[in-house]
Design goal:
With 70 residues, the chain is an alpha+beta fold. It has helices at 22-31, 62-67; strands at 11-13, 16-17, 38-45, 48-53, 56-61, 68-69. The chain has a single domain (3-69), classed as SH3 type barrels (Roll). Helices cover 23% and strands 39% of the residues. The protein has a four-stranded antiparallel sheet with strand order 1-3-4-5. A hairpin with a 2-residue loop joins strand 4 (48-53) and strand 5 (56-61). The longest helix has 10 residues, at 22-31. 19% of the residues are buried.
Length: 70
């Protein structure tokens, strides 16, 4: 399951990041988005979703949301 299928307001644990793009992996890691971390989808938007990771909220696009396995 990935973030595009997550219910709003429910906390999930990130299983893995499914991408071969090293730059994308580094970017997500800098946000605190890595395996074992809790993540919550605050809301789904037309082009992606708003997520809460640690103390921050981030707007991520659909491709990025599909790469985050929960």
């Amino acid at each position: 399951m990935n973030l595009t299928e997550a219910k709003e307001g429910e906390e999930y644990i990130i299983k893995e990041i499914l991408t071969d793009d090293e730059e994308l992996t580094s970017f997500l890691f800098s946000l605190g988005c890595y395996s074992g971390e809790p993540i919550t989808v605050v809301s789904h938007l037309k082009g992606g979703c708003v997520v809460s990771i640690k103390d921050g909220r981030y707007n991520i696009d659909t491709d990025l949301a599909k790469a985050i396995s929960i």
